[in-house]
Amino acid sequence: MKGIQAVGTWQKLQLFYHGILGNGDKRTDSWPLVYSPVPIICIFLCYLAVIWLGPKIMARRQPLNLKAVLIVYNFLMVGLSAYMFYEFTASSWLARYSLLCQPVDYSSSSLAMRMARVCWWFYFSKVIELSDTVFFILRKKNSQLTFLHVYHHATMIFNWWAGVKYVAGGQSFLIGLINSLVHVVMYLYYGLAALGPHMSRYLWWKRYLTSLQLLQFITVTAHTAYNLYDDCDFPDSMNVVVLAYSLSLIVLFSNFYYRSYVAKKQGKDA
Predict the structure, then answer these.
(1) How far apart are CA 235 and CA 169, in angstroms?
(2) pLDDT tens digit sequence for 108-136
(3) How many CA atoms lie within 13 A of 206 on its CB side?
(4) Are 140 and 92 in contact (CB under 8 A)?
């Protein structure tokens, strides 16, 4: 009897997995890291392994001098983020996207494919950004490996795998557009900081960068909540996931902002 139940459970899992594979956007299925969740799960597991083993391996070693690598990496990320911001803006504008409620265009028209492609690039950029964590470990900046940092980087790759797999376009474009703009500013800050200590006097605006990050999550939360309320022709399951995720980031970034700026200022004034 137990054997029959086990077979039944296994068949259900197989059907569920094949449903995940077969119900995606056919336009993006053949693109790298999209058709199956297995590759991105493997990347995630490698990421966790690096976080666990990396500090142990570096414990008895000197931190690496990655100045040149960080300068190149950060400014390349500025360029990639600027490109994605332009593509999200141009694609949505030319396709006359609605800011309030925009269904996914699953056609193979040039504009629909242009939007799908920039969604893929945005997803792939989240894989590239896992390098941020590797650089922290190699430079022995382990204090930067906070729950917020790991949670945000690890979950974004899954969120946008699902985005490109099922909803490559539509109202999800606004998330990519806003986040790309924020990352232009963020990687510009990190790129300038990597140039050396002499740049510190020009980097007084770090606090405002955190405020900008918080503002994006508040905007995404409001936008997603409106779409749930308005019953937009966009999967409610995606909206619920985005809403819950953006709320979690508001809580985590608000806590970071308080500890980094408010509590420290209060401590100095005491």
Answers:
(1) 12
(2) 999 999 999 999 999 999 999 999 999 99
(3) 14
(4) no
pLDDT for 265 beyond 70:
no
- Number of domains within the chain: 1
pTM: 0.91
Residue 63 per-residue DSSP state: P
Of 161, 222, 173, 214, residue with least CA distance to 35: 161
Establish if 47 belongs to a structural domain: no
Whether the Cβ atoms of residue 235 and residue 167 lie closer than 8 Å to each other: yes
Beta carbons within 8 Å of 222's beta carbon, 6+ residues apart: none
pLDDT tens string 224-263:
999 888 888 899 999 999 999 999 999 999 999 999 888 7
Residue 152, Cβ neighbours under 10 Å: how many?
19
Does the residue 50 lie in any domain?
A: no
pLDDT at 8 (0 to 100):
62
d(C-alpha 31, C-alpha 234), whole Å: 22
Catalytic residue among 18, 149, 152, 183: 152
CB-based contacts of 3, cutoff 8 Å, min separation 6: none
Of the candidates 24, 40, 10, the residue with the CA atom closest to the CA atom of residue 156: 40
Q: Annotated catalytic, 152?
A: yes
- Residue (of 75, 55, 29) closest to 168 by Cα position: 29
Distances (CA, A) of 111 to 24, 59, 99, 114, 169: 19, 50, 17, 5, 10
Q: Which range of residues forms the domain containing residue 224? A: 63-269
Helix (H) or strand (E) holding 130: none
